[in-house]
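ok so heres the complex, two chains, lmk if somethin looks off
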Amino acid sequence: MGNASQSIWGSMQSKGYSRRDFLQFCAVAATMAGLGREGVGEVVSAFDRKAKPPVVWMHFQECTCCSESFLRASHPIVADVLLDVLSLNYTETLQAASGFQAEKCLNDTIQNNKGKYIVLVEGAVPLHDDGVYCMIGGRTAESILHEVAKDAAAVIAWGSCASNGCVQAAKPNPTGATPIQKLVDVPVINVPGCPPIADVMMAVVTHLVVLGQIPSLDDQGRPKEFYSRRVHDTCYRRANYDAGLFVESFDDENARKGYCLYKVGCKGPVTYNACSVVKWNEGTSYPIQSGHGCIGCSEAGFWDKGPFYQHLPSFPGFGIESTADTVGAAVGLVTLAGVAAHAVMTNVRKKKIISEVHEDDQPEV
Amino acid sequence: MRSQMATTQSTAHAGHPAEYRRVYVWEFPVRSYHWINAVCMVGLCGTGYLIGAPIRITTAPEAWQLYWFGSIRFVHFLCAFVYFFNFLVRIYWGFVGNEYANWKNFFPFTAAQRKEIVDVIKTDVLQVKLHGNLSLGHNSVASLVYLMTFVAFAVQSITGFALYSSMSASWFPHLFHWIVPLMGGEMNVRYVHHLVLWFFVVFIIVHVYLSFYHDYLEGRGTISSIVGGWKFEREKQ
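and the predicted structre for the whole thing:
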């Protein structure tokens, strides 16, 4: 899958791209990595000389939706070229090789590029029962991950599975699905989402390749460029939220008017992602724009915070419909009833109380 | 029978009423803390509930013509800041105030205080010891409950400001942001913040009722003391 020692420009040249195409690509790459116009020259000189970074893309407990999303990046020139720019040496989904050949590709990449290659991981790693729930080539996902990640320059955890476990880790987590950052010692970039936005994935890879460094991460290991704001903060329906104009049910007049979806369970106010800015499918739309609340798919454990159609999670042990509010209101009512009963009791026994107190108030003889 | 006896006695001792001493129990910072806190707490609970379950009070053709929910949230944040700094003042006063305001009151674990816990339960819940000689300041059960409210204050402050930090450029709320990754995301933080709301609702109900109950039972100015600061203690014979 390409000669690893070749420079990026060399590789593009051999594929028939013109210098103009190359410069265009550099400009887009610089933009995606968050550099200004001044940064383009830097990128050009880097790509002129830099060897194609070897990349291995691992698939563990996942549904391949991250790969599917990645393929739908809305900047085709970046998508096409980046896949050429990267030396994608191993990926179960796309590679032609199989069996021993595929294993050899992986081993060669690791052996020949110690400390230089990038690992992209899609999916969680199951730990229960010695990791038997995800085996590739007779080995557990855990042992493969340890071997692959040991000498990696960086690991990118694609999607919610690799970042925080996602649906496999939902209670009771039967396979012991574990996010990547808990298993490896090398730096991990979390790109959560189910799946993550294609352009975000592309931009994170670009940042790594162009600048050769890990983008600045927040306290949950997510790139700040894309995960520092809530979906809510940049939502085009935000004005309705502040105005107090809410959709009450999906078939009401308010839904037709495009009011805020907060009351029908939108998790936008607690979800950090770039959906409302970058959007999906070449910037066409995103869930809220289509009239459905955000389900918070890029937040840790969002499967266990359901139902999706109410804002507060269910209160454990009281059935699926009861939230903290129903339980709280019930406790409040019981308290009120108790206080009322107490007041009644006090009044029933009033004579006794008064006489006791009165008696006690008299000075001793 | 008893009441008859009492009447006889009171007649017999007319002219020798029990003597009470006026004691300045709640200093001004304690009283101001109490009332600022009361206003903020009611404001926070009311607006907090509405933030969780908003109601639409009016309608307009365009969203920009209204700011009802924004105002609700503004009141919530305003009360939150006032209540937080008010709480800090109270903590300070726990170190410099009088014996009734001292922080040690809120850890009622000495032998005498533990005994009083039993006494108060007998008085308040079982109603079998109606004229116990309870502490002039906070009784031990009240102290224990206030300790719980302080913990709840801390939880609400941390989770509340952590939630607020994502929409604030100020450094202050960001001091609390560490709780978000610790609890595994804002969904959990928001949930806990909402759950503790109900602790305060229950606390307010019980607290207000028991204040009146003790005022009635002890007859030494419990209710008026939180306005004027004075309580009455029976002189030793």
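quick notes: Chain A has three domains: 8-226, 231-305, 331-361. thats all i got rn
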